[in-house]
């Protein structure tokens, strides 16, 4: 099986076609019973660190979703500088709603450029729970605030944001898998 290479991303092993279309059982059972390769692929879609993905996948089975999320957190806390750099290469920039004013796009682009020039990597922030209409203000405020950090403090802050992002993405993917499994069961039962 050949890896799928995405620009600026970790090589993610390509999945067999049947794995991409097969219904996913409800988590954590579906995650626990997935092949190691499928579990790692799912995890890499949450955070682009091979070490993190392997660690979380290799500690299966998880008795509950909360236990899986706790293991995700623990593995993220242990990211080395190299692991964090690897994860950051695949992180997208926080984006704006499509209807945002051009001035907002320019301000955000300038802030991202200043941040990347100072710290050498993309700015990351977890906006879990932030209403969409407040996202731009939160991102700009956070970039401006974090530009004053020294590099080590910013590495620690970035690692925390990456951990939160991985947790949010994993929880979202598990909920989506659960919804697909529930929909599949309901369809099969005729309900």
Shape: globular
- Counted up, domains total 2
Count of individual helical segments: 9
Beta-strand content: under 5%
Here the CATH topology of the largest domain equals UraD-like
What is the name of the CATH class of the largest domain? Mainly Alpha
Largest sheet: 2 strands, antiparallel
In total, the number of strands is 2
Order of helices and strands: EEHHHHHHHHH
The helix content is 55-70%
Q: Overall pLDDT, averaged?
A: 81
Class by alpha and beta content: mainly alpha
Task: Report the radius of gyration as a whole number of Å.
Answer: 18 Å
Q: What's the architecture of the largest domain, going by CATH?
A: Orthogonal Bundle
Annotated CATH homologous superfamily of the largest domain: Oxo-4-hydroxy-4-carboxy-5-ureidoimidazoline decarboxylase
| Widest β-sheet, arrangement of strands | 1-2
Distance between the termini: 39 Å
Uncertain spans: 1-26
How would you sum up this structure, described in words?
The chain is mainly alpha-helical and 191 residues long. It folds into two domains: 26-87 and 162-189, Orthogonal Bundle (UraD-like), CATH 1.10.3330.10; 92-157, no CATH class. It is built from nine helices and two strands. It has helices at 17-21, 29-33, 36-44, 50-58, 65-77, 81-89, 102-119, 135-146, 151-189; strands at residues 3-4, 12-13.
